[in-house]
Amino acid sequence: MSQSLIHSTLNEGVLTLTISRPEALNALNAEVISQLSDAIESAQSAPDVRIIVLTGSGEKAFVAGADIKEFADFNAKQGKELAQRGQDQLFNRVERSTKPVIAAVNGFALGGGLELAMACHVRIASDNARMGLPEVSLGVIPGYGGTQRLPQLVGKGKAMEMILTGGMINAEDGLACGLVNAVVPTEELLATADAMARKMMKNSPRALQTAIQAVLAGYEEGINGFDAEISCFGASFETEDFKEGTSAFIEKRKPQFSGK
Ligand code: CAA
């Protein structure tokens, strides 16, 4: 049996997935990608999981990138397959998770590591976080969605600067440019992610799922985001959560959402 590289803990609806390969600063090899993908997939249908928090083991790194040693002798075909497989198996799956995924960025988030954080719906960074896409220093370019998701978050100019210099930015600069949503002291990172998760958990799970879908629609080729929003909005009116949310408001009580 293969070693477990993803540690998971479930605490009252919040599933924390910790990438645990500290000897390689949690670098994403094929096994980490496969195990993390499986963990995200099974969380989708687990009724006791409401929100997912993704972090790295130790205080030094969230994830230091794709595993350079694994692809160092790849040819063009293998390189293309690596990016395709990674995007299909993990990065797109994280972004399309029906349950919100919060990245708790605890140190280096480089290359594939920053790309993984960017595929999450929200990013909270510890004050020692260092983030960048250094792929060009290795003679490649970002392959796990970085050239697309970084400009979406920080704008084209800043993304070009980060990708072309390959340099790292610190947590405060990440906050200033919109790469991360919040910066907190390292020792408060997981508690802050948990607090945000609990805030999300007060809302209708069905509406959270639909909201994620509507936001992502605006970034899908050939889809009009406003039209997608109208459809998603309309569909919400047929859900049990909508009946419960509006009834609870009118009856001045807390809603008990079923997620249906
Ligand atoms: N792949 C494989 N191993 C890695 C790794 C990576 N991305 N990052 C770190 N490691 C390994 C190191 O090789 C080292 O292992 P050994 O002890 O066996 O030599 C161990 O982790 C500790 O790393 P360092 O000794 O380098 O630690 P440091 O504190 O001196 O430096 C660092 C930390 C600046 C993060 C440095 O490790 C580093 O630059 N790592 C690579 C970052 C990078 O280039 N990431 C992009 C990868 S390419 C990519 O992600 C492609 C894509 O988009 C699909």
Topology record:
Blueprint: E1 6-11, E2 14-19, H1 30-45, E3 51-56, E4 61-63, H2 68-71, H3 76-95, E5 101-105, E6 108-110, H4 112-119, E7 122-126, E8 130-132, H5 146-154, H6 156-165, E9 168-170, H7 171-176, E10 182-184, H8 189-201, H9 205-217, H10 225-236, H11 240-250
Parallel strand pairs: 2-3, 3-5, 4-6, 5-7, 6-8, 7-10
Antiparallel strand pairs: 1-2, 8-9
Q: How is this structure best summarized?
A:
The protein is of the alpha/beta class and 260 residues long. The protein has 2 domains: 6-201, 2-enoyl-CoA Hydratase, Chain A, domain 1 (Alpha-Beta Complex), CATH 3.90.226; 205-250.
Entry keywords:
six-stranded mixed β-sheet, 10 strands, 2-enoyl-CoA Hydratase, Chain A, domain 1, alpha/beta, 47% helix, 260 residues, single chain, 17% strand, 2 domains, four-stranded mixed β-sheet, binds acetoacetyl-coenzyme A, globular
Describe this structure as you would to a colleague.
The chain folds into two domains: 6-201, Alpha-Beta Complex (2-enoyl-CoA Hydratase, Chain A, domain 1), CATH 3.90.226.10; 205-250. The protein is 47% helix and 17% strand. It is built from eleven helices and ten strands. The strands form two sheets. A six-stranded mixed β-sheet has the order 1-2-3-5-7-10, with helices on both faces. The structure holds acetoacetyl-coenzyme A (CAA). Residues 24-25, 27, 64-69, 108, 110-112, 115, 134-135, 138, 142-144, 146 line the site of acetoacetyl-coenzyme A. Residues 24-25, 27, 64-69, 108, 110-112, 115, 134-135, 138, 142-144, 146 line the site of acetoacetyl-coenzyme A (CAA).
